[in-house]
Amino acid sequence: MRVDLNADIGESFGAYTIGDDAALLRSVTSASVAAGFHAGDPSVLRRTIRLAKAHGVQIGAHPGFPDLAGFGRRAMHVTTAEAEDFVLYQIAAVAGIARVEGVALQHVKPHGALYNLAAKDDQLAAAIAHAVQLFDASLLLFGPPASALQRAAAAARLRFVPEGFADRAYAPDGSLAPRGDAGAVIDDERRIVPRAVGMIVERQCRATDGTVLNLAVETLCVHGDTPCAGRLAAAVRAGLEAAGVRVAHPGS
Amino acid sequence: MRVDLNADIGESFGAYTIGDDAALLRSVTSASVAAGFHAGDPSVLRRTIRLAKAHGVQIGAHPGFPDLAGFGRRAMHVTTAEAEDFVLYQIAAVAGIARVEGVALQHVKPHGALYNLAAKDDQLAAAIAHAVQLFDASLLLFGPPASALQRAAAAARLRFVPEGFADRAYAPDGSLAPRGDAGAVIDDERRIVPRAVGMIVERQCRATDGTVLNLAVETLCVHGDTPCAGRLAAAVRAGLEAAGVRVAHPGS
Amino acid sequence: MRVDLNADIGESFGAYTIGDDAALLRSVTSASVAAGFHAGDPSVLRRTIRLAKAHGVQIGAHPGFPDLAGFGRRAMHVTTAEAEDFVLYQIAAVAGIARVEGVALQHVKPHGALYNLAAKDDQLAAAIAHAVQLFDASLLLFGPPASALQRAAAAARLRFVPEGFADRAYAPDGSLAPRGDAGAVIDDERRIVPRAVGMIVERQCRATDGTVLNLAVETLCVHGDTPCAGRLAAAVRAGLEAAGVRVAHPGS
Amino acid sequence: MRVDLNADIGESFGAYTIGDDAALLRSVTSASVAAGFHAGDPSVLRRTIRLAKAHGVQIGAHPGFPDLAGFGRRAMHVTTAEAEDFVLYQIAAVAGIARVEGVALQHVKPHGALYNLAAKDDQLAAAIAHAVQLFDASLLLFGPPASALQRAAAAARLRFVPEGFADRAYAPDGSLAPRGDAGAVIDDERRIVPRAVGMIVERQCRATDGTVLNLAVETLCVHGDTPCAGRLAAAVRAGLEAAGVRVAHPGS
To answer: How far apart are CA C131 and CA D100, in angstroms?
Structure first.
């Protein structure tokens, strides 16, 4: 049994700080770095890549909607051509700065509302997969299991890495409960760690109505925008390892 | 005698259009493409690169201050670290999309206030040259002759291409007259064409006070944000060729 | 018979120009001014208000989604609280600058995707109407006839001014055909003028499938983002007056 | 002896939080609220005004440069017309939302680089004072003592409230030491409280070189963007009151 542990990092912007990236990077094996559209800026991006490199963590691009005010969490009705173009732009920016810092990009993971829409919208998913394929067909694409994004990755012959969220509630259909719903975000470490372990060891998770969902995930996301995200990531990693799970990035 | 003819393109943004890029591309040999900070957006950027490629025009990145509202023409007091980071980011975005479109980047040319400040500020110039060098030391750097940017390019072992402006007035010290000054922008084709020819054939130009300036320029910029920019570019090219000047990109 | 003729103005931004506001203002009786979120900036806003005042045209605030890159034409999934707040902010900015210029605000008209969503979404419509009511309950609210926005205006005891578009195709249900559809935007003056006259004199309009729609509109919008918008507005006004319609702002 | 105690608040943006406004508002008597250009957004603005009102704290507008990425701390070379327009816009937005919340605006205080430039640049200072005067000539203008802004306020017949900073080092000429300099920001409560008391009781402060500066300040600023800003504000207030100073807003 093995799993990748990932976090979204580089989400600070100018004078604004979000997340304790240094703490997260001590526990995760992959990190998705914001590109300046929904979060991040050129200096944060470069600093974050250096930090991830110093921790030996694999780096991905984390493209989002062009909506800093909404942190990329508001759905926007863009055309698929627009989506392909701004995903391509964001991958190019992250990959270019990573290369300058001596790091090769491992993956791409859409952010927030773009991620959620691409889980269900085949055209948007195809646009994202196409942008990844055009830029570098060897990049991994992270996304929800059994989603439109997974189908689009297959069609584009990209390696897809299905992702689970130990700190988010699942609806009975296997989608994430909307962030605004009560109970959608789980912040109790005592619940998150066993959920993470169950997702990998038993390949199962309970939905909001108690339904048992079968999940085939190869990476688990630990959210970074909570005060004790670093400690939580460490606890999840320790819990997984104690259960005999090897925590390693997907390419290892 | 030979010279490169360049234009700044890709400056439209969303529903906003500036410049007749298609017309300009019929006459120039190099084009500097905006990267979305002072002008341009991901879709405009990609479309513009395709258009330049179709016209066989060499492409450069045109990084500017992060100031869409001011079109990058307002000086901003950024740190040199910030400047290096946002120039690097913009080069990475343009180069990455160019690569996807099957085009290699030829050069980098700073835009507007960043260009004017880098002409005189050694630290800012060094930050820009360093960003270029880090990204790809074979990229050409376009800038004003005998400037801080030229010195910084030499220190970074970059090939520098000194640039002249046939449609801008020069102060007696060889700097461009500020855009806001009366007469700073020349829009009479009958004056621009002979100025362009004089800059290359005689390697001279008259400053605002009549002083004769000796200029060693290897590229001439034709501005694109005027209604008849396309016709003007054609006239400048025709005038140069009629005077026996070969118009070709710097690497040819 | 009478009708108000309105246009959306003040949509330029920094170095970017959209629309020939001066030409439009010669023919319309009301003008909705962008507030800097989807278009416009503080200087454009102030200059536009002065221009409208000089032409004796009534002014309204034209709030839109915070999406300059999409010109406010992309639907965004904001909360109703967010919508109320950013509509309130935009009204405050326009009204404040208008007051300084010696002009009282006449109306509020949502822009683009906000307008289209508020036509059908009761909660969003209520948020917009509430913002107007909170700011100044004597402001008129412009919107589509028989819409959620009209109902929300009634609930908030605001005077509602139903609006027709002579240059846009209507779906059989009375909504505007989406801008991206073929034929959705009518640019032939010879078709627009009789449609405008028919909307006011016969209170009818043909939908895309030929259905006759009964429309009770009190203002007609002339779009300004076309090259000959000024001439078109003049033609529509002349056509209406020739048919015996009095063209005047709603409060006259 | 009396003094106003002020803080800059409402500087959060979307998902990004800066400052513990609720803690600050327990101790200050005036608060300057960001307007969305260098910090803040419409929802933060409205929420912040409500919070200040609930604490009985007087409200001012805190206009800054249009530079969210730089938090308004980077000097920008704007024209005086641009400055007047964007200051006017920001005052209008804050005042309009305050009015809806049942609060009248007390003052205007420029932010960051705009404040520092207006301390020395007579034309910029005049533009700011003119915007305030145009909007409401009864508004107070906060700024550095013996500055260009004070002179501009006098010329515009505005009541000026000279401001001191107990947590910032002063250069020998009475200007604030640049934020980037070592020691420019004082974060030791044991030094800040006696400095605050000295500024009001003795009307003096020591500059970085030991020079004794005579300061005639009527309001003291407590910065809010430090983790323990709320505790610091409470300590400053307690220190002032223990020294017999009455802490009250300027209009009381």
So the answer is: 9
pLDDT of residue B117: 97
Closest by Cα among A157, A159, A153 to A126: A153
Distance CA C195, CA B217 (A): 59
Residues of B in contact with D77 (CB under 8 A): 74-76, 113
Dihedral pair phi/psi, residue C211, rounded to 5°: -50, 140
Instruction: Give the pLDDT score at B46.
Output: 98
Contact criterion met (CB < 8 Å) for D96 and C135 = yes
**pLDDT surpasses 80 at B193:** yes
How many CB atoms are closer than 10 A to CB C133?
Answer: 20
Q: Looking at the predicted structure, is the pLDDT value of residue A252 above 90?
A: no
Gap from B134 CA to chain D (nearest CA, Å) = 24
d(CA D72, CA B212): 42
Nearest CB to C75; choose among A66, A67, A77: A77
Q: How many CB atoms lie under 10 A from the CB of residue B171?
A: 16
Verify whether the Cβ–Cβ distance A14 to D41 is below 8 Å: no
From chain B, pick out residues whose CB is under 8 angstroms from the CB of D67.
67, 76
Position C84 scores a pLDDT of 98
Specify the pLDDT at position A69. 97
C-alpha to C-alpha distances, D221 to A52, D225, D233, nearest whole angstrom:
39, 12, 9
DSSP string, chain B: -EEEEEEEE---BTTB--S-HHHHHTT-SEEEEE-SSSS--HHHHHHHHHHHHHTT-EEEEE---S-TTTTT-S-B---HHHHHHHHHHHHHHHHHHHHHTT--EEEE---HHHHHHHTT-HHHHHHHHHHHHHH-TTSEEEE-TTSHHHHHHHHTTPPEEEEEETTB-B-TTSSBPPTTSTTSB---HHHHHHHHHHHHHT-EEE-TTSPEEE---SEEE---SSTTHHHHHHHHHHHHHHTT-EE--TT-
Q: Is the pLDDT of residue C179 over 90?
A: no
Please determine, for residue B227, whether its predicted confidence score (pLDDT) is greater than 80.
Answer: no
First to last CA, chain B: 13
* CB–CB contact B14 C70 (8 Å): yes
Q: Which residue in the set B69, B74, B78 is minimally distant from D77, CB to CB?
A: B74
